[in-house]
Amino acid sequence: MTAAARRIAAILPVLFLLFTLNGCAQKEAAPPAAFRVALITPGPITDKGWSASAYEGLKQIEKELGAEVVQVEGGGTSQHAGTFRNLAQQGYHVIFGHASEYDDPARSVAKDFPKTTFVIMNGRSTAPNLSPIQFQAGQATYLSGMVAAGMSKTGKIGLVGGPEIPVIREAFRSFEKGAKAFNRDVSVKIVFTGNGDDAAKAKQAAQALLGQGADVLMHNANAAGLGVFQAVTEKKDAYVIGANADQSELATPQNLGSFILDVPSAMLAVARAVKEGKGEGKPFAAGLKDGAVSFKYNPKFQGTVPADLKARVEQARADIIAGTVDPKA
Amino acid sequence: MTPEAVLSFVLQTLAFATPLLLAAQGEVFAERVGVINVGLEGMLLVGALASVWVALLTGSPLAGVLAAVAAGVALAALFALFGVALRRDQVIVGTALNFLALGLTGVLFRAYFSGRTVGVAPTLPRLADTDINALVVLALLLVPLGQWLLFRTRLGVTLRAAGEVPEAAAAGGSRVNRLRVAWVLAGGAFAGAGGAALAIGINNAFTENMTGGRGFIALATVVFGRWTPVGVLGASLLFAAADVAQARLQAAGLVTVPYPVFLAIPYVLTLAALALRGARVRAPAALGEPFDQG
Fold it and tell me: Which of A131, A212, B18, B207 is the most buried if burial means most Cβ atoms within 10 Å?
């Protein structure tokens, strides 16, 4: 999110706060009859990515559950708690905080509003009315790893990460485990660039991996991942796997598929559980079982993914859901 | 290492040094004439967006480069207005411009690119399967030219005088602030071109904040390169080589040190250069000081 946009966005919750502060004696309004759901996004919902996917989830909640919904763009760090408090005072039943950075402010506010359920994307904390959605990205990257190992001719696979954060590290570990499960001799090398915006650095990392003989690459570097697709486009015998969303349109003929985090379906599942009184204050694991994470083949891939490889991937998917295969490394 | 590996290392280093080299080259002249332009990062960024946007619209990467230069000059003109003409604190003006550029490019990028399918931008023609393009060659050619201009011509003497003892330069008939504005604009052009070298030279698309701090590394490059074009060339190549090398070491699985250590290299070397070389590394005496021609 850009600094200027952040600043503009920051004004909104402040205004909200000013309007509500006069009647604010820490008294919780009686929740109205309708089921009401709020969403706080870290950026504008026009980003065609992270925040857009959450807004899509909110719209589905509105449609499927007949909920009354509102979306707020969160401001700077100092305003987070105020935004949560303000929405809770308005009697929202569920408040989604769509960034792991909302974990702390939500925890501090949640104890004052027992009738509101706080749901934090990739958060850590839990309380009776605070539950994070934890995407089991590793379940999908395990499958990506199998596909990569199955399609590699050189037996070398490369991964490009942005900042070295736990979420990305874990996803990569599961990828490696999946790749090795398919072919024990395959080598998986990782390059972190430390930056999710710097596409040139990601390209440089991808080129370094390709130069070492890797012929299948996957990224998890947000926007900078574009540099990885570009490096693959410039090397005709290499393949690439997309991250987090369906990225089939990038480096299309050389694109094997993407691992996908289905944010809307995870949000819908949580909202439904809360509406039905089943919000339990424990992490909501969004995995293969719920369809919240998946691996999607690219229909426009230039070659063919062998049927027996697809069958083994499908078997692994079933095994992970059944719990007989653990993608966590 | 095989000869091919060495060659590809050298070529990649040259390509990735170019955005840095262009921005730093312009900054050498700006600082020599007495202006510290902290807004390089922003100028690289507007150049990057302008190059992608115009290259996509016109289908011509050359038009993209020209647009990038124009965008860099436009932002530099703002800097010159506040930092030179209105004599505001140059560091603060530059910092403000960086934020302006970050916000502006983000807003424009989203306004234009949201809701439509964006293909890849046409890139500058490249040498075989390397990232070497015309801007890389241009950046290298500008080094000897800059060195000659700065130290072997009357213009160079006038320029340096304005940055060392502006009062004397003014007494000698120089229009100090006019010189400063001119070289700040030139610096903006160079940085804009550097943004193009990044966005349509190396990459083929714009991503928000894609410059990733290169403008700040360029500032360090100027200090480490001791305010000379040749020194800046050496420093850019060294920093780029360190970066390319660390990616390759990671790719080979040979790295046991955490990668952020490598990210710090340019700054650590710059501090070391300042500490070790002592008095021999000296910024222009009037650097960052506004001048009142009276």
Answer: B18
The per-residue pLDDT for range B73-111, each reduced to its tens digit, is 999 999 999 999 999 999 999 999 999 999 999 889 878
User: Is A24 buried (19+), middle (13-18) or exposed (0-12) by CB count in 10 A?
Assistant: exposed
- What is the predicted ipTM? 0.90
What is the distance in angstroms between the Cα of B103 and the nearest Cα belonging to chain A?
A: 5
- Model pTM greater than 0.80? yes
Q: How far is CA A140 from the centre of its chain?
A: 12
- The total of structural domains in chain A comes to 2
Taking the Cβ of residue A192 and every Cβ of chain B, the question of whether any pair is shorter than 8 Å is answered with yes
- B217 alpha carbon, distance to own chain's centre: 9
Q: Quick check: A227 and B253 CB within 8 A?
A: no
- Do A65 and A98 have their domain in common? yes
The CATH code for residues B3-278 is 1.10.3470.10
**Contact assessment for residue A317 and residue A143, using Cβ atoms and an 8 Å cutoff:** yes
Q: Using CA atoms, how far apart are residues A41 and A48, in angstroms rounded to an integer?
A: 13
- A155 & A195 share domain: yes
Inform me whether the C-beta atom of residue A195 falls under 8 Å from chain B C-beta atoms: yes
A3 within some domain: no
By the CB < 8 Å criterion, does A46 face chain B?
yes
H/E stretch holding A178: helix A166-182
pLDDT digits (tens, 9 = 90+) for B5-43: 899 999 999 999 999 999 999 999 999 999 999 999 999
